[in-house]
Structure formats: C-alpha cells, structure tokens
C-alpha cells in the first residue's frame, strides 16, 4: 500500500507541476489564483508586455522586498504595445520579489502578496512561459504574469472582479519559477493525506 501512496503522490505532484506550465490564459476563471512567491535568479530582470483586457488604466511595478526598493511603474495598458520590452535592472540572486498592479482609475493597488492588496487577496497569476512571438517581437522563455485589476470582496468598493487574471499580462525573465506559498502547499498536503486515508480504507475493506 505504501508503494501505491507514493505513486499517487508522484502523479499528483507531476500533475500540479504540469498545470503550472504554459496554462495561459488562467484556466480557473472565477476563483482566486494560488499565491506564489518570487525570487531573482541573479542579474538583469527584463519584462515583455503581453497584452491587456482591462477597461481601467493600469500600470505595474516590481518591488524588491529584500532591499525595500521599487521600480517605476511601467506597461500602461492604454499606451503600451505588445512585445514592448523594459529592463527592471539588476537584482541579487535570491532577492524576494513582489509584483504590483496600480489601478490608476480607481486608485486601488493590488499585489502578488495578498497582504499588500487593497482587498487582501492575491491578484497575480503566474506560470512558466516557453517563449513565443508577441507583437512581432521574439520573447524568450520566462514567467508569465496575469494581473487582476478589480477588487474582490472589498466592501464599499463598488467593484466586481471576474478573477480572470488577464487585465494586464507580462512575461518576465531573470525570475525563478514561482513557488507555491505555504498555504498552497498545506492544501496539497491535506489532499494527499486524505487520499492516503481513502486508499488505506479501501485496502482494509
């Protein structure tokens, strides 16, 4: 039975990894995207504008939580062309990063760090990107970021987020594959324990 549990665990982990690979656009519209943490791989971090669907005017910025520094806002979704490249500068390997969307229409700020979002929810969907052509520009493999620019469950905001995570989209390089936050890992662990219990009951029956 232990071998069966190990095999099932491996299958689930492989499925979770594959689900994070090039799942563009976000596949679970209407649900809050799993939170991820980000780290610099060391050296330049570049970003390529992927596109946008937002009606509001949005910009994004990169925050280095390790050094408490922030980039200037970039990628205005009303004026930036697909494939536009910007250089965020050089970052030390392992620096913890936060991606932030500023909705200039409503004044709300949303983040990949739930606690830093106006509504307390994660507003950045992340997955690996295998490279491609955007606006006639060849974009290398990296991390795809899809931002949600409206508040979710924020009393008095008058906003109704659709949680489609495509309001502003970008691909970044120089950033390690996103790692699930502890809460996401806890959910996975709970699921695996439940599965192991189910298998044990079936074996005894």
Structure description:
By secondary structure, the protein is of the alpha+beta class. It folds into two domains: 1-20 and 180-205; 29-177, no CATH class. The protein has two helices and 13 strands; from the N terminus they run αβββββββββββββα. The strands form three sheets. Strands 1, 3, 4, 6, 7 and 13 form a six-stranded antiparallel beta sheet that branches. A hairpin with a 5-residue loop joins β6 (96-103) and β7 (109-111). α1 (2-19) packs antiparallel against α2. The radius of gyration is 19 Å and the shape is globular. The model is unreliable at 3-20 and 183-193 (pLDDT under 50).
TL;DR of this structure?
The protein has about 200 residues and is of the alpha+beta class. It has two domains: about 45 residues; about 150 residues, no CATH class.
Task: Name its key features.
205 residues; alpha+beta; 2 domains; 5-stranded antiparallel sheet; 20% helix; disordered N terminus
What structural category characterises the helix and strand content? alpha+beta
Low-confidence stretches: 3-20, 183-193
Termini separation comes to 13 Å
Radius of gyration, whole Å: 19 Å
Largest sheet geometry: 6 strands, antiparallel
Strand content: 25-35%
- What is the mean pLDDT? 84
H/I helix tally: 2
- Order of SSEs: HEEEEEEEEEEEEEH
Residue share in helices? 10-25%
Total domain units: 2
What gross morphology would you assign? globular
Number of strands: 13
């Amino acid at each position: 039975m232990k071998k069966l549990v190990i095999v099932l665990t491996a299958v689930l982990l492989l499925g979770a990894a594959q689900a994070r690979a090039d799942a563009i656009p976000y596949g679970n519209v209407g649900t809050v995207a799993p939170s991820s943490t980000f780290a610099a791989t060391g050296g330049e971090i570049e970003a390529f504008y992927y596109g946008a669907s937002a009606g509001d005017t949005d910009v994004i910025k990169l925050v280095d939580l390790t050094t408490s520094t922030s980039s200037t806002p970039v990628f205005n979704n009303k004026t930036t062309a697909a494939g536009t490249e910007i250089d965020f500068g050089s970052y030390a390997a392992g620096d913890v990063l936060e991606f932030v969307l500023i909705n200039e229409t409503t004044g709300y700020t949303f983040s990949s760090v739930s606690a830093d979002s106006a509504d307390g929810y994660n507003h950045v969907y992340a997955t690996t990107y295998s490279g491609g052509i955007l606006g006639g520009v060849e974009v290398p493999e990296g991390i795809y970021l899809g931002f949600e620019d409206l508040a979710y469950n924020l009393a008095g905001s008058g906003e109704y987020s659709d949680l489609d995570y495509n309001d502003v989209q970008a691909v970044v390089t120089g950033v390690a594959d996103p790692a699930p936050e502890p809460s996401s890992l806890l959910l996975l662990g709970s699921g695996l324990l439940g599965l192991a219990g189910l298998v044990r009951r079936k074996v005894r029956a």
